[in-house]
# Entry
Amino acid sequence: MTDRPTIGVLALQGDVREHVRMLRGCGADPVLVRRPAELDSVDALVIPGGESTTMAKLAVAFDLIEPLRKRVSAGMPAYGSCAGMIMLADRIVDGVAGQQTVGGLDVVVRRNAFGRQVESFEADVELAGLPGGPVRAVFIRAPWVESAGTPVTVLGRVGSGPALGRIVAVRQQLLLATSFHPELTGDRRVHEYFVNMVRER
Ligand code: GLN
# Structure
């Protein structure tokens, strides 16, 4: 692995540009992934926030869903934020009928989990393995991890308020997922953590 890994950003829908900017800032080479050949060329992949139902439909329509499943199950590092977390989950609660995911992450994710009153909010979240204090986590109609299988390490939980203790950051080997959107803040630490996972591979 080079010091400057090529990291794809799934560019079907969602906040693609923000992830590209973050990855570049971390010393990676971001490339947009819309086709299977583009997916073949990357060392790792970020699945952005957006709308998982739309993203999943587009992934099917662009013939990407199977190639994505193959690469993830073959061990490609991947990071999903928000809708991206849903895309990486093996199981969804409150998805739309027939909603597909890439899967790989042994979790049940509840879509739009925080409810209507708290569609969007910010909170400090302490992340295991991330020095420098809590991250300011931006949640936008976010999912949470309802339950996680034994291969999954919980990295972060909501630290206060009505959703206290809910799981919002997880890792399973080379898969990383957060309910929130570090790409929308000026704090690069989560992306750095991911890029380092890719480098250390
Ligand atoms: N609610 C969205 C979904 O179901 C996720 C929102 C987000 O990515 N900010 O995909």
DSSP finds six helices and twelve strands in the chain. The helical segments are 16-25, 36-40, 52-61, 65-73, 83-88, 189-200. The domain at 6-200 is CATH 3.40.50.880 (Rossmann fold).
